[in-house]
Amino acid sequence: MEGVYIMPTVAIGEAKNNLTRLRREALTGKEFLLADAKRKDEQPVSLISTVLLDELCESKEFTFEWVDEPGKNNEDYSLWNVETGVYGVGKTKAEAIEDFVDNILDYAKVYFNDLPYYLSKSGSNRSHYWYLRRVIRCDNNREMLNKVLNLDSLSD
Fold first, then answer.
1. What CA–CA distance (Å, rounded) separates 9 from 6?
2. Euclidean distance between CA atoms 78 and 68, whole angstroms
3. Residue 52 to residues 21, 25, 108, 127, 150: CA-CA distances in angstroms?
């Protein structure tokens, strides 16, 4: 059919031989599906620009709730991230935010070290992937992470 674009599929062997060219084309926005002819039952894997994935992930915004504040029955602030269920607790809001950052970094590390478990279709944490990918892309840079998480909006 003329005018119809079909996403290019590249065999693993061909991809190995042409990786530099494929990478260069992927940087322009072209996506390639890498297929393993020896394993017909496996899903293809995409070779795509990381910048495009980053832009896709930017639509995943983090929202927070202060679920506890010092009062009659509680001495601490508790900050909860709605999308991932991660908490941060502290005597002050600033301490709770710092605890949250430590906890989301720990969770992202655990998550990405066991992706088959967390990405299981039957698991409840599958939807966390795109949020935690944003965390991982900060490369432990807390200043960048504060911006990505929009934590400055939580301070008094």
1. 9
2. 5
3. 18, 13, 21, 19, 21
As a whole number, mean pLDDT of residues 26-50 equals: 85
pLDDT in tens, 85-138: 999 999 999 999 999 999 999 999 999 999 999 999 888 899 999 999 999 999
3-state secondary structure 116-154: HHHCCCCCCCHHHHHHHHHHHCCCCCHHHHHHHHCHHHH
Query: How far is residue 22's CA from residue 118's CA, in Å, rounded to a whole number?
Result: 30
Sign of the dihedral through C-alpha 34, 35, 36, 39: positive
Of 117, 119, 70, 77, nearest to 94 by C-alpha is 77
Q: Which CATH class for the 64-154 domain? A: alpha beta
What is the per-residue pLDDT for 101?
A: 97
Query: Is pLDDT larger for residue 32 or for residue 4?
Result: 32
What are the extents of the domains in the chain? 9-48, 64-154
> What strands, in cross-sheet order, belong to the sheet with 64-68?
64-68, 77-81, 87-90
